[in-house]
Each structure stands twice: as C-alpha cells, then as structure tokens.
Amino acid sequence: MIQLDIPSSQTRAPEQPSISAYILDHAEVQTQSSVLTSTEYARLGKLFDPDIRLDLERSFAAVRTGLSNHLGQAKADIVLEHDTLGAPSLRNMRELYLSISRTVGWSAFATSHDKAVGIDIEKVRDIDWRQMLPMMCSASERKIFSGIADDDLLPFYRLWTIKEAIMKAAGQGFRMGAPTINLSASLILGKTVQGQVSHTDRIFDISCFLHGDIVTCVASECA
Q: What separation in angstroms does the CA of 59 have from each of 26, 47, 64, 93, 197?
C-alpha cells in the first residue's frame, strides 16, 4: 500500500491534508483472509477467466484492507455502495468522498472529507492508442498527438488518467464528454505533473504519478 504525495496546494494544509490517495499492489494481497460481500461474490461469479477473476478478487480485498487501515475500521465494516452512475460510497460513512480505480494487478483509492475527488489508475500496456483519440481528445490535443511516436505510450495514458479522474471528481463519468476537457501539452507530455484544468465554469486541481509502469492521477474540484 503506497500513499501518493498529494501537494499541499491541492489540500487544506500539509499537516492536515484533505485528500488521501493510495495505490495497492495485488501481489501483496492474501485472498484467503479477505472479506467479500454478496455483491462482490456475484460479480466474481460472472467471470469465466480464472486469472481475471483472481485479479478482481485481489482488488476487492486490497481496497477493503486499504480502506480499513486508512480509516481505522474493521474490514467487515467496509461496505461499498454505488449510485446510479457507479460512484462508490461507504455505507457507514456516506459523508466521506471516495473514488476507486482498478487496473491489471493494481488498485487505487482516494478519500476526502471536504471535497469531491476522483482517481484513475492504469497499467501501461502496448495498445493502438491512436484509434482511441477521437473518443478522448479535443482538436488541439489531437494536434499534440500527431507529433508523438506510436511506441510512446505514456502521453496517451497521462491524458486518459487525467480525464478519467476529472470526470469522476465532477460526478459525471464519461457523460461529461472527454473531448470537452482540454489538457495542455505540458501535462500530456509529462513536463509538469501538477496543475489545474478548466472545464466550462469549473476548475480542477490535478496531480499525476508514475510508479514503474503504473500511471495514476488524482483530481479534485477547486473551491
């Protein structure tokens, strides 16, 4: 369980951060001692690939253990619920803002007591990212990607995780419209890892992290 260093500019104060975020390695999880809900068991039962099923089971266990350690609550008391858009909350702490993300072998969660927060985590894999640009990019962003080599994967994963985190923090998911969120070249190219992104009349603080081949972004709306 690795805590992400959210800069003080995105929190109330360094000594009392309003946002906490962690990434979790599934390899460290003991599924034998995990506590799963009936909903989680039902979701696992729909998966036929044993490797995918085991990875999701480890993710459920990792997130529950991580939230238990972070909040000082028993694992059995960490019961997740979801709204109609899929946003998670804790049954016994509905006032806590919570975001969860999963990728192959890793999970992530972010919490805040005073502001909506979004987190996204992705494992960098060799994909044909150019075919995904129309659903993700504005016209100006596509110009940036026209100068990026096909085997340079990080810019696309930065763009994906930043936009996903913002859409989660906004409480809208993909209905927000990823191409309507316009990122600077410095964020896409990794020249800066913290900044602000404007969307209509809203402004979001973002922080990006790279841990090996794992890309993570945390976003929160400015007050």
A: 6, 14, 8, 21, 30
Q: Is 17 helix (H, G, I), strand (E, B) or coil?
A: coil
Residue pLDDT, tens place only, 78-109? 888 888 878 888 888 888 999 999 999 999 99
Of 138, 204, 206, 196, the closest CA to residue 170 belongs to 204
Q: Which residues of the chain have pLDDT under 70?
A: 8-17, 31-34, 223
Domain shared by 107 and 56, yes or no: yes
What domain count does the chain have?
2
> 166 with 63, same domain?
no
Asked if 104 and 148 sit in the same domain, the reply is no
Whether 43 and 60 share a structural domain? yes
HSE-up of 77 (CA within 13 Å, CB side)? 11
DSSP summary character for residue 16: S
Cβ atoms of 128 and 91 within 8 Å: the answer is: no
Q: Are residues 104 and 146 in the same domain?
A: no
Tell me which residue range forms the domain holding 197. Answer: 121-221
For residues 74 and 109, membership in a common domain is answered with: yes
Q: Helix/strand/coil (H, E, C) string of 111-143? A: EECCCCEEEEEEECCCCCHHHHHHHHCCHHHHH
Cα angle: 100, vertex 211, 68; to 5 degrees: 40
- Euclidean distance between CA atoms 24 and 5, whole angstroms: 14
Q: Are 60 and 34 in contact (CB under 8 A)?
A: yes
Which neighbouring-strand residues pair with 68?
A: none
